[in-house]
Amino acid sequence: MKKVGILGGTFDPIHLGHIELARCALNQYELDTVLVMTGGMPPHKRGVITDAALRHEMVKLALSGEEEIVPYDYEVSKTEYSYTAKTLTELKKLHPEWEIYFIIGEDSLQDLTKWYEPQTVTDNCILLVYPRDNKYDLDNLIADRKKQFNADIRPINAKILEISSTEIRRRIKNGESVSGFVGNEVWEFIKEKGLYI
Question: How far apart are CA 186 and CA 195, in angstroms?
Fold first, then answer.
């Protein structure tokens, strides 16, 4: 079996914290690769989001120097909502040789019961969870969800992210620096396309 990590997200825009999380999961769980999967139409995101093709282009630019962490466009061209349960079910059929490690944040694990078909999600992958904030005791939360869904859920030993895409968009809109938040190639692309202003 090939150990494949999947870090899905809106990536509006992708930032250095996303890449660091992928690296932590890759190394801690000795994954063969981590696919950074740009969400097409995420059902939980309300309001205006940047076109999926532009978001995925930023993912490709951000990962251009990586070998084991690669862009994955499976959801980009989809016109219907991108539900994790459906995507994982489809990927298991397409790639039966994959053991899928789906990377999510602590906040997403907290909200797992509100997801579309959460049991299907946990049946089709090993969940790797990174800490998001200090609101929840991650170990207790993992224990609760493991019991609730009879799931394989494991923590990622990563620092709490101090970066968010929302904060990056706010900074750009206000003319503030995003140095240290996004890579140079992504920043140049954002400026070239006039995004987030």
Answer: 11
CATH no. for residue 139?
3.40.50.620
Q: How far is CA 190 from CA 56, 58, 97, in A?
A: 12, 8, 37
pTM for this prediction: 0.94
Q: Which amino acid is at 45?
A: K
Phi and psi at 187, nearest 5°, equal -60, -40
Q: What is the CA radius of gyration of the chain?
A: 16
pLDDT digit string (tens) for 115-163? 999 999 999 999 999 997 755 689 999 999 999 999 999 999 988 878 8
CA angle 54–55–60, rounded 5-degree value: 95
- Contact by Cβ (8 Å): 145, 154: no
Classify 194 as helix, strand or coil.
coil
Q: What's the number of domains the chain is made of?
A: 1
Inside any domain, residue 190:
no
**CA 41/CA 173 separation, integer angstroms:** 23
Domain interval for residue 124: 2-161
Q: Is residue 113, in this structure, part of any structural domain at all? A: yes
DSSP E strands, the chain: 2-9, 33-38, 69-72, 98-105, 126-130, 153-155
Residue 129 lies in a domain: yes
